[in-house]
Amino acid sequence: MQQERYDVLIVGAGVVGCSIAYHLGKLGLRVALVERGEVAGEASLAGAGMLTALAEASETHADAEQASPFLQLCLAGLHYYRDWINT
What we know:
The structure is a single chain. It is built from 4 helices and 2 strands. By secondary structure, it is mainly α. The protein has a two-stranded parallel sheet with strand order 1-2.
């Protein structure tokens, strides 16, 4: 039996683990993604893809440039997601 070889091992196939695997794969790395249960079945499922912190924080900041670093991170994630799903 031939043994599989990978460049990267990612433990956890939630939103973050899957995103990392996707991007490393696009860079040409061989990625192994392992999950003990269902893909996106734990915290990713509980969060249901919501950016709740973004919704709460954005109500108090009209201008993203003057927003807190956390809100800026949330906004960047939202724009990244929008671009990612349109590829």
